[in-house]
Amino acid sequence: MDRATALGGPRLPAPKGERGPVLELRGAAARAGGRTLWSGVDLTVRAGEFTAVLGPNGAGKSTLVKMLLGAAPVAAGEVRILGSRPGQANHRIGYLPQRRSFDASMRIRGIDVVRMGLDGDRWGVPLPLPGPRRRAARARVDEVVELVGASTYAHRPIGQCSGGEQQRLLIAQALVRRPQLLLLDEPLDSLDLSHQGGVAALIGRICHRESVAVVMVAHDVNPILHHLDTVLYLAEGGSATGTPEEVITSTTLTRLYGARVEVLRASDGRLVVVGRPETTGGGHAAVG
Ligand SMILES: Nc1ncnc2c1ncn2[C@@H]1O[C@H](COP(=O)(O)OP(=O)(O)OP(=O)(O)O)[C@@H](O)[C@H]1O
Predict the structure, then answer these.
(1) Which segments carry the region annotation Disordered (predicted)?
(2) Is the pLDDT of residue 120 over 60?
(3) Which pLDDT tens digit goes with each residue over 97-111?
(4) Which of 29, 79, 152, 242 is the most exposed, having the fewest neighbouring CB atoms within 10 Å of its CB?
């Protein structure tokens, strides 16, 4: 299941251009605050694949995302994104950081927030463009707003949009430059259940229909379970990689945590982890 063995050793093969994997980690390790957060991580993500990064608070999930953007060092092993080292292909990556929301008094329109993703400077004032480029930019913004189903509220001040609507607009912003990889850090956090389901389905659709590779940090796997191809579970400094059916099992999580953990399936199909040595208040009712 851990793919290190299947892929044979820590060295990465030579880049294969656009047809190669979008993301590859081989024997990768992360350090922060003077300690190793995780090590020996192997992961391959290809175009159109949806990967969830799960694990308890403090396991180093956000640090992984920062590492992929070149904002946190690779402590050991190899990491390659779109054939380059982390940080060198960021213009081809759409990124949605953790816990971003807008104050109710924020007057800027949703559509302008989306447009900022196109201009590169997400929080600056868009530069005036010559006519044809301006029209192309406007068409792309409209296209992506429609893709995320935000057309009816995109012209409202973003501060007046609901959390789920804001999240859709931010996903549109991350998508507007046609990224090949979408990095999402807990995009379902703080959304109610119905919005979680809607945004999860949207991300699944973007991934599988538009062939965008998605790597998403999640606390609860349940809203995305049916859209996922791969799970990377980080805990206790180690990792497990594979399909959700391979990773989210009593056997795998017991091995990873080094303590008895039971995975139960509720009658509605939701997975419940019991006995996980949880480090914070996430509870035992979710997997992640
Ligand atoms: N720059 C830093 N300096 C010192 N410690 C750091 C730094 N960045 C992260 N850490 C620590 O590394 C650990 C992992 O942090 P990270 O944010 O990656 O965890 P996480 O799995 O995303 O957690 P959560 O689920 O709570 O968001 C935490 O203990 C955090 O305090």
Answers:
(1) 1-20
(2) no
(3) 887 778 888 889 999
(4) 152
Rounded Cα distance between 233 and 218, Å, is: 10
Q: What is the pTM of this model?
A: 0.85
Report the percentage of the chain scoring pLDDT > 90: 58
Tell me the pLDDT tens digit for each residue of 136-176: 888 999 998 998 889 999 999 999 998 888 988 998 999 89
Question: Taking a C-beta distance cutoff of 8 angstroms, is the pair 286, 57 a contact?
Answer: no
Cα 40 vs. chain centroid, distance in angstroms? Answer: 20
Which is more confident, 261 or 123? 261
Under CATH, which number does the domain 3-274 receive? 3.40.50.300
Q: What was the ipTM of the complex prediction?
A: 0.96
Name residue 24's amino acid: E
Res 248: pLDDT: 94
User: Is 99 exposed, middle or buried (CB count within 10 Å of its CB: 0-12, 13-18, 19+)?
Assistant: exposed
User: Probe ligand 1: pick from 31, 35, 36, 37, max atoms within 8 Å of CB?
Assistant: 37
> If we measure between CA atoms, which residue out of 50, 5, 223, 21 comes closest to residue 13?
21
Question: DSSP assignment of 124-164, as one string?
Answer: SPPPP--HHHHHHHHHHHHHHHHHTT-TTTTTSBGGGS-HH
If one counts every other C-beta atom within 10 angstroms of the C-beta of residue 201, the result is: 15
What span, in angstroms and rounded, lies between the C-alpha atoms of 246 and 151?
39
Residue 281 CB–ligand 1 contact under 6 Å? no
> Is residue 288 in contact with ligand 1, taking CB distance under 6 Å?
no
At 33, list the tokens.
């605050």
Pick the residue whose CA is nearest to atom 30 on ligand 1.
Answer: 58
